Amino acid sequence: MSLETPCIAVCMMDPRTNLCFGCGRTLPEIARWHRMESAERLSLMTELPARMRDAGLQPIEPSRRSKAISV
Fold first, then answer.
1. Is residue 63, in this structure, part of any structural domain at all?
2. Cα–Cα dist 17/34, whole Å
3. Radius of gyration of the chain (CA)
4. How many domains does the chain have?
5. 6, part of any domain
6. Do 54 and 26 form a contact (C-beta atoms < 8 A)?
7. Which pLDDT band holds residue 47 (cuts at 50, 70, 90)?
8. Of 41, 54, 66, 71, which one has the greatest count of Cβ atoms within 10 A?
9. Would 65 be classed as within a structural domain?
10. Residue 57 in contact with residue 17, Cβ under 8 Å?
């Protein structure tokens, strides 16, 4: 994984908040991630921990045995 991505290869969306349990991004953010400028990605990454906390979500830890599911 790049240093400019919050992805931990746990791609599962919370139906209540529409946030990824692994990284806290929305599907539209995930879809356009590679088209964002570096500054925009880094700015969003700083917001993700608070976003997850405010939504009451605990990030799912990546499993060594599971493979990433692309969204």
1. no
2. 23
3. 12
4. 1
5. yes
6. no
7. very high
8. 41
9. no
10. yes
Any bridge partners for residue 20, and if so which? 13
Is the residue at 49 inside a domain? yes
Q: Which residues of 15-34 are buried (b: 16+ CB within 10 A; e: fewer)?
A: eebebbbbbbbeeebbeebe
Q: What gap in Å lies between CA 67 and CA 57, rounded to an integer?
A: 22
Taking the C-alpha atoms of residue 45 and residue 18, their distance in angstroms, rounded to an integer, is 17
* Residue 34, token pair as written in the block: 């590679």
Range of the domain at 27: 1-57
Tell me: the pLDDT tens digits for 29-41?
999 999 999 999 9
Q: What residues contact residue 25 under an 8 Å CB cut-off, 6+ apart?
A: 6, 19, 33, 44, 48
Q: What are the tokens at 27?
A: 């599907």
